Structures are given as C-alpha cells and as structure tokens.
What does this fold into?
Amino acid sequence: MHLPLKHGESPLRWSSRRTWAIVLAISLLTLHSTAQAQESPATEDLVKAAYLLNFARLAEWPQAALSDGPSALMIGVSGGDEDFLRVLRALAAGKFVGTHHVEVKSVSSIEEMKSCQIVFFRASEKKHTLAAIESIDRGVLLVGEDESFLRQGGMINLVHDRGNIQFEVNAAALDHSAIHFSAKILAVAKAGFESSHTALLNPPAEGARRLEHSAMPEYPEIAGRMKLTGTVQAEAVVNPDGTVRVVRIVGGHPLLAQAVIRAVKQWKYQPAAKETVEPVKFSFGPQ
It folds into this structure.
C-alpha cells in the first residue's frame, strides 16, 4: 500500500499530518484481521513484513539516519530464510517513505547493519543478537521476534498474542536511538519489556501534543507486596516549551498515583504556543 506524500514534504513532518491517525488505524486493523499467525507460516511472514514497512513509515528519523533527498530507506534482515525475504521484498516493491524508496537486503555483518535504517533480527540469530545491538550506533531501528530481544537492548519486538502478532516497545532504547514514534502509535503497543505490570492505555486525543520523551512509572515495591493493582488517571499541565509543570491526579490508588506523578514529571512534549493539559492513563497489574 503506497501512501503518497505532498511534493517536497519531509518524512520528519509526515507523521504529524492529521490524516495519518486514520491511516494508522486502518493499517493496524488490517494487520490484526490477517494475523492468524499459527495457521499459516506465509501469513505470519506477511504480517511481520507489513509491520516492518509500517514502522519505516511511522518513524520520525533523525537527520543523520535518513537525510532529505532521494536515497534509499534500507530494511536489513539478519538470519531467517529466503521465503521471508521474498515476502518482504514483494511488499516493499515500489513503496516510498517520503522521498526515499524502500529496499530490502539480507545482512550478516555489523557494517552491513549500520548501513540500514531498520534491522530485523530473526529468532534464529539470537546467539549473535546481543553483540550486534551493542555495536550498532544510534539511528538504526532494531526489531526482533525473540522473547529476550528487548532485554538485550532491542527497540521493538514482534510477539504472538492469542493467535495474533502484536509488538512490544523498549522506550528507553528508542529514546537513546533518537528515533521517535508518536504517543498514539506507542499506545497501541502490547505491554512488554517496559513493565510486565504497567501499560499506557489511552491514545492521545486528536490534536493532542506529541510526546517526545517518556519515562515509565516504576511499580512501587510496597505495592508489589500488597499485590496492589488498578488504573491511575491524571492530567499533565504542560508548559509551552514541552516540560511538565504539574501532574494532577484524577483517580487511582494514592500509592500508584505517586509513581505516575514521578514518571510523568520527567516527560517532554512537543513545544506549543501556550500551556496545555494532556490526559494520562496507566494501568498497573500483577507482576
């Protein structure tokens, strides 16, 4: 599916267009409706390939990683078989991200991986994944499909969940990479590495300020001993420069609320002309 851009429009601005929320919703619904991964290997390959292409489209790339111009956006695949490469190449054929045509190649060395914007590590490569992650500089989106991938420093992991394929996010690794996704996209991620007991539930409303930096709340130790769960709803009062001035709790257990306040005070939103109030909602579940 080719999504046309306005002539000369930068990919760094693309994801901020109002229509992209609709495109994202359609893309994700399509993925979930076809992701009966355990029924057919070919279907699983197609869904994972579609995720990779959508990550390429939705990412806000730093200039050093993807400069303006007609260069290629390269998706590298480490490990796996020719069948997946064939599916991914077919899906990417003729596709563009801004002014960049999408190319796909098999990679095995660190230098080959550094020449890519996205590297997808197949589960068969798990023995070599950690060394590769530690050697790759900022500006390369690292995607995997193994349960240990995010703990090793990977950024996005594709996982099976009730017969479908969803994705988990290591927000700290993404922040370090300087590759950004909007809070609307991250809110769709399955609760994973960030915390097995904490998930960002609500996508921001249309027109809400984009979250540029986030920190997940730490599940309080005493809450763990009490087996305390629940949802905290809050409002972040955000200064024009994007820093959070104050966090107001709307509902939730006080013990969990304090963890949310400490985390949200570290957040940074996109600058705006005036102070705004942004909704925040977290769910804490058992570890």
Observations:
- The mean pLDDT is 77.
- The first strand starts at residue 73 and ends at 78.
